[in-house]
Design brief:
Layout (H helix, E strand, L loop, with lengths): L1 H36 L10 E5 L14 E10 L4 E5 L6 E5 L3 E3 L25
Antiparallel strand pairs: 1-2, 1-5, 2-3, 3-4
Length: 127
Amino acid sequence: MLNELDELWRESYESSRIYKERLKIYKERLKLFHDKTITQKTFEPNQKVLLYSSQLHIFPGKLRSRWTGSFIVKVVYSYEAVEIENPDTGKSFKVNGQRLKPFLEHFDNQEDSEDLVHPLYQDPPSK
């Protein structure tokens, strides 16, 4: 009886150890996958950026943009802290760099477009 209990205890201990090893491997793989998907944003002084406004979660709207501004980067600090300035008011403040994204100012929308010709609607030929 004691041998059976001792054997059950060893088996449970061994299965627990195997589970912990597999869990550790899973977490390492998940971290590698997550780190691959993160893009590093680098900002430079005098660059225009947009600021993410988290207050708009209170008033949901499908078509409402959560990005405000165009702000100008003044100083980039360590650990992704960025000081930005509102060009309209001249007020500057620090934000987390993860709340910013570059402002694409020079967007060319000059694709080759053709004028559409109005089709002539005619009655089908009668038989």
